[in-house]
Amino acid sequence: MAAFRALGLAPWLAEQARQVGLSRPTAVQAACIPAVLQGRDCLGCAKTGSGKTAAFVLPVLQVLSEDPYGIFCLVLTPTRELAYQIAEQFRVLGKPLGLKDCVVVGGLDMVAQALELSRKPHVVIATPGRLADHLRSSNTFSLKKIKFLVMDEADRLLEQGSADFTADLEVILDAVPARRQTLLFAFPCCILIILIFFPSRDCQVLNMMLRKYSFPSVALHSMMKQRQRFAALAKFKSSIFKILIATDVAARGLDIPTVQVVINYNTPGLPKIYIHRVGRTARAGRNGIAITLVTQYDIHLVHAIEEEIKLKLQEFSVKEQSVLDIFTQVNVTRRECEIVSV
């Protein structure tokens, strides 16, 4: 019990954890519970059986107990079986609160589910397809005030294969507030998140090009309205879109701990801009990669960066034939997108 208390959990919740057999925090619980209680977004990578469900159930229940209302938390999961398992953990650990939950999955009566949703349960655990169906067909409930969005087995939710949830997830993301805590839990090393810095005038064009080639991308630039920026950033932070094309101005102050790759489309004119950009990855002790595209006219800029950071940048040559093989098709696509964006 003391070990859970040390993570910041209230005595009643630590005692509840003890009663259900949680004697000491697992690694993922020790890493995630304090971060969630501090109001931060979180990405937890852990194998099955590592206690990752309790890693989000416990802190969500604590925050809920401080200001209870419904609908407070939305949990998305790829399968109905997992949805019921998560619901059971919420019920057992949240028993002292009189917790109300609602499981929204396929194969069950939609009218009965809609009635449950209209009663504003504290926690909704759902598969994307069925929840999106409700959002498309009903206005008897709202997700606009949720505090937490949790995506369990996020790697399966976000993969684009036979079970592609992208369209349903977009419907759901449009229905939840941009300002919320987002918690992602996945199998280790399954989610790659990329941030590309691009000039403002071409930002939207590149986004359209990537989408044409089926890359899950979203743009963030200064010509967007604030509401559009919040929505785009929320979709990126939730990993609905794994690639963000952003301008320096729009990306200023971004804190997305899970960014693994930063790509500079152009070599920054000032070393401090380079430092700001590449600082979006390898945060909080994580590993990260920064790639900068350099032409023969940018060598002096690279030397200025190296002098500022006191480090020799590693050079990777480009195979010219590989570029030429796709050059024509990419140029055609670019012209098409430029016409549409005008």
Automatic annotation (TrEMBL):
Residues 168-324 form the Helicase C-terminal domain. CDD domains: DEADc_DDX49, SF2_C_DEAD. It comes from the Eukaryota. One of its GO terms (molecular function) is nucleic acid binding. Residues 2-30 form the DEAD-box RNA helicase Q domain. The chain crosses the membrane at residues 182-200. A motif (Q motif) lies at residues 2-30. Keywords: ATP-binding, Helicase, Hydrolase, Membrane, Nucleotide-binding, Transmembrane, Transmembrane helix. Belongs to the DEAD box helicase family. This is RNA helicase. It comes from Trogon melanurus (Black-tailed trogon).
